[in-house]
Amino acid sequence: MYKRLVIVASALILTAAAVSGCGSGSGGGGTTLGFSQVGAESGWRTANTQSIQDSAKEAGINLKFADAQQKQENQIKAIRSFIQQHVDVIAFSPVVESGWDTVLKEAKDAKIPVILTDRAVDSKDPTLYSTFLGSDFVEEGKKAAQWVIDAYKGSNETVNIAELQGTTGSAPAIDRKKGFSDLIAADPKFKIVASQTGDFTRAKGKEVMQAFLASHQKIDLLFAHNDDMALGAIQAIEEAGLKPGKDIKIVSIDGVHDALQALVDGKENYVVECNPLLGPQLMDLVKKVKAGQPVDHRIVTTETTFGPEQAAAALPNRKY
Questions:
Q1: What is the DSSP letter of 267?
Q2: What phi and psi values does residue 194 have, to the nearest 5 degrees?
Q3: Going by fewer Cβ within 10 Å, which terminus of the chain is more open, N or C?
Q4: What b/e readout covers 197-232, taking b as 16+ CB neighbours within 10 angstroms?
Q5: Could you tell me if 219 and 244 are in contact, meaning their C-beta atoms sit under 8 angstroms apart?
Q6: Can you give the pTM of this predicted structure?
Q7: Across residues 240-249, what is the average pLDDT?
Q8: How is 174-223 classified by DSSP, letter by letter?
Q9: Which residues, in sequence order, are CB contacts of 140 under 8 Å at separation 6+?
Q10: How many angstroms separate the CA atoms of 270 and 144, rounded?
């Protein structure tokens, strides 16, 4: 009888220990990642989401996913929910750069590491997040500008440029504009005659381009902060009876399938890649920060550029 009581008591202790071990939200000993996505505003973002979801599954990581629908308040709410659920790691792609310190400090106080993906924040406290994984947006803007400079080399005629900006206040919109503007500023023949947000969407890109065409007699070149806005602008240019890629040269950033096809078709002239397939790298970082391993505070993704020939070569295997 005594031995039987000892065995039962031991079993109860072990059961209690096992239950307490799941209290961190680790999903039965695994890792739980809370991820807040910007939304689904573009083909790039859809590919980014798919990469994260697929990679989490492959890595055996329990993913809690929240779509912010391009609203910062939704992301803050999601992050606070992740904190309450005691996830192991929080990752998110910030809608805008500013206004994150309070909620990031809440995560830090809860001892939950945070990873920024794709977009950065402008916090002056670097300890509020473990690492940032993503592109160098300023460099992307410079790559686009360098193509423009090379394309008009030897000409002294004024080049009127229209610019479709990304979401106001977002890191890619701010940085891509800076990289592009800083580089073309050295030559006074380049003039940005129209610049407005197209919110990274195809529909808004078309709408704003229609307004540009109505209010400006001559536009030589369009610089779009992403491919989807450029693709919308192509529709507006064609509907105005002009030839995109010829009457108005077009440079954009991302490298989605439809933009590469537009390059091959002669409707775009140059595309700078921004790689959305961050899932595998993100899951590797999630495991490392959960284990307390050191990681670089800034991890830049490797990317390329496309002209028509490079686009034709890349299209058959393009995943997004």
A1: S
A2: -150, 135
A3: N
A4: bbbbbbebbbbbbbebbeeeeebbbbbbbbbbbbbb
A5: no
A6: 0.83
A7: 98
A8: HHHHHHHHHHHTTSTTEEEEEEEE-TT-HHHHHHHHHHHHHH-S---EEE
A9: 172, 175, 176, 179, 253, 272, 274, 303
A10: 8
